Amino acid sequence: MFDDGVTPFALSALKYALFALLFLFVWRSMRWVARGVAVEPVPRTAPAHAGPARPEAAALVVQQPEDRRPRVVPLDASVVIGRAPECELRLDDAFVSSQHARIFARNGAWYVEDLGSTNGTFVNEQRLGAPAMLQPGDRIRIGRTTVELRR
């Protein structure tokens, strides 16, 4: 049924075609991974002449889907948000990573950064790629939970 006399040229052509397909697969996979970790633009940056070293006192208004009323959490230091018991702001949300995001003070302003979460952190519906400065009224979405910065 099959001819055992396959020419060396045909074998070489098949070998190079397989190599080309393998190279194409690796190249496309690396492009896909690179797009997934690409740094997205930061919504806002701190001005060069930022005010005092400590920002004024603030609060976080936390609204979880199953809660009827939001809870208010004072914000006076760095806060790690997530599902893990050691987080300062613990969220009972299946879409939140164990250590999902961090809110911290720098140059007199509040910032939020994603800590490598699976589902991402969003500020005013823009996905974070790097730490972003927060303004009063900004809404941070972590999983299905919304956190709003208030002064």
SSE topology:
Blueprint: H1 8-36, E1 58-63, E2 71-75, E3 79-82, E4 89-90, E5 101-106, E6 109-114, E7 121-123, E8 126-127, E9 132-134, E10 139-142, E11 145-150
Parallel strand pairs: 3-4
Antiparallel strand pairs: 1-2, 1-11, 3-5, 5-6, 6-9, 7-8, 7-10, 10-11
Explain how this protein is built.
With 151 residues, this protein is of the alpha+beta class. Helix content is 19%, strand content 31%. The protein has 1 helix and 11 strands; from the N terminus they run αβββββββββββ. The strands form 2 sheets. It has a 6-stranded antiparallel beta sheet with strand order 2-1-11-10-7-8, with no helix packed on it. The chain is elongated, with a radius of gyration of 24 Å. The relative contact order is 0.18.
